[in-house]
Design goal:
Blueprint: E1 2-6, E2 18-22, H1 31-39, H2 43-50, E3 60-63, E4 75-79, H3 88-105, E5 109-113, H4 115-119, H5 126-140, E6 160-164, H6 168-196, H7 204-218, E7 221-225, H8 227-233, H9 236-242, E8 250-257, E9 266-270, E10 272-276, H10 296-311, E11 316-326, E12 338-339, E13 347-348, H11 356-366, E14 374-379, H12 384-389, E15 394-398, H13 401-414, E16 418-420, E17 438-439, H14 447-456, E18 464-468, E19 474-475, E20 485-486, H15 491-501
Parallel strand pairs: 1-6, 2-4, 2-5, 5-6, 9-11, 9-14, 10-11, 13-17, 14-18, 15-16
Antiparallel strand pairs: 3-4, 7-8, 8-11, 12-13, 15-18, 19-20
Helix pairs in contact: 3-5, 5-6, 6-10, 7-10, 9-11, 10-15, 11-14, 13-15
Length: about 500
């Protein structure tokens, strides 16, 4: 999809569909919307007075201008809700709602104005509004149908999104917002596609090939360690997880060198379990097919690195994806086995289905060599976080209060909310074992937090945060800009965090 900004009057611009966003409870129309209403003979005002369109969040109404009134073939009114409640996520969702309506109308070009940003400019700049709307449009237009042999009655793909703005200063702000939103949303759609692909396609090697493609396109350095190189490096916990699979594990490192030489890098780590049957501690058959989503953390890291490279972020950033399968065979690791790790700690494997933390443990130990400024890791780590937070927030565990608050603010801003879990030292006691330095599970009680404590044991002397995305990595598509399947979380949070830290 092409995204552009045009210096044009919305009442004079020819387009198949013009999106007009309206607040709830405000009868008086101002600015460009008032001009549109005047050209329509007061049609929008009449609809609002009669209560046919109130402007509630998510409300949508298509209109067909009479010939000679507007050059736009169609209008779609989209409700924003109350003005005082407007935020970037609401704009993102409104854009997704508009796209869904465009698909119903089978149009391929969509135009919009940013008038709503002017009305709340003290909180939302035109550039930020344009970024959120661009993200909502591109995310909302996403579909995953690569593996279907028949496309029955599918709407034509949306080919172009145009933002209209006459004022030059605002147009420049909007162009920058569109540039950032476009790169992030396309990256997030890559993460969604990687997550939606089945395990027989998106193998560890497939993720490694994706990393190589991104590196080639964005001028990054890529290193991929296979089984032999991993053994030489001492990534023993990762190798133990992969023992039951014929697929070769991959340890993927992408490096974006946009900062000053010697500047400490920011590190992103994502769990890349391309299919997780649970190993010997096998999962129930029901919904096991969803375990193709167990690599969504790794997909988010690859996608975020793509956006970071495309945006030319002035920071040194390293993305690490430990990739593997967790299957059953005569060679698979067993409950009670004691394995090694990159850090040298011995680990008693109580449950082979608590495998993601083993991959992350080796990755967290490995990245110590980079002396990072800070490290974020993301993983579909525990079902317990879904019980605690549902699908509305990602669980956050950290060793640094400042980083915790930073991520909370950023998550709220980009619409990928996080919620910190308590990291009391007493929880660490649940990981003690008589037979090794640490065991990989601490029982059912507070199991998301004890998983976080397990990871913390492998973290070096740097600020670190773990994002448990088990409840947010995939979903039922109820959000206006989402579809059923992988969500791409937390690509937006990753990229915004790096942007906020960049020099």
């Amino acid at each position: 999809m092409r995204v552009s900004v045009q210096r044009a009057d919305c009442t004079e611009f020819e387009t198949p569909l013009l999106v007009v966003k309206l607040f709830e409870g405000e009868e008086e129309l101002v600015g460009p919307i008032a001009k549109i209403d005047e050209r329509l003979g007061g049609q929008i005002s009449r609809l609002r007075r009669r209560g046919d369109f109130r402007g509630k969040e998510g409300e949508v109404l298509p209109l067909y201008p009479a010939e000679g009134t507007l050059p736009a073939e169609r209008l779609v009114l989209v409700g924003l809700g109350k003005r005082e409640e407007l935020d970037l996520e609401r704009l993102r969702r409104a854009a997704g709602t508009a796209v869904k309506q465009a698909q119903k109308l089978r149009v391929q070009r969509l135009s919009s104005i940013m008038h709503h940003a002017e009305l709340v400019e003290e909180r939302i700049t035109p550039g930020d509004a344009a970024r959120a709307v661009t993200e909502g449009v591109i995310l909302g237009a996403y579909s995953f149908d690569e593996l279907k042999t028949k496309q029955e009655d599918q709407p034509p793909p949306l080919e172009e999104f145009i933002v209209l703005e006459k004022v030059e200063e605002k147009a420049r702000q909007i162009e920058e917002g569109v540039r950032i939103g476009d790169a992030i949303a396309r990256a997030q759609n890559l993460a969604r596609t990687l997550g939606n692909l089945p395990g027989n396609v998106a193998t560890p090697t497939y993720l490694a090939d994706t990393a190589r493609r991104i590196a080639g396109e964005r001028g990054m350095q890529v290193t991929v360690l296979g089984r032999d190189a991993m053994r030489e490096e001492g990534l023993h916990a990762h190798l133990a997880v992969s023992q039951g699979s014929d697929q070769e594990p991959q340890f993927i490192i992408l490096e974006h060198r946009g900062g000053a030489k010697g500047e400490k890098p920011l590190v992103l780590i994502g769990k890349g379990l391309t299919f997780d049957a649970g190993g010997i501690s096998i999962k129930p058959a029901e919904r096991m097919e969803e375990m193709k989503f167990d690599m969504c953390g790794g997909a988010a890291v690859l996608a975020a690195m793509q956006a970071i490279g495309e945006l030319g972020v002035k920071a040194n950033v390293i993305g690490v994806v430990p990739a593997s399968e967790n299957l059953i065979s005569g060679a698979a690791v067993k409950p009670g086995d004691i394995i090694g790790s990159h850090l040298g700690k011995s680990i008693e494997v109580i449950n082979t289905d608590a495998e993601g933390r083993l991959l992350l443990a080796d990755a967290l130990s490995y990245v110590r060599r980079f002396e990072p400024a800070a490290v974020l890791d993301a993983a579909t780590l525990t079902g317990a976080i879904v019980i605690a937070l549902g699908n509305q927030a990602t669980g956050l565990m950290s060793n640094d209060e400042g980083l915790t608050e930073e991520l909370r603010r950023i998550g709220d801003r980009v619409g990928e909310r996080v919620w910190p879990m308590p990291m009391y030292k007493e929880y660490k006691e649940q990981l003690k074992t008589e037979y090794a330095d640490i065991k990989n599970t601490g029982g059912r009680a507070a199991s998301s937090i004890t998983a976080g404590w397990f990871l913390r044991e492998f973290v070096g002397d740097f600020p670190w945060a773990h994002l448990d995305i088990a409840g947010t990595a995939w979903g039922d598509g109820k959000l206006a800009y989402q579809t059923k399947g992988a969500t791409g979380t937390p690509v937006r949070l990753f990229v915004e965090w790096v942007l906020s830290r960049a020099s």
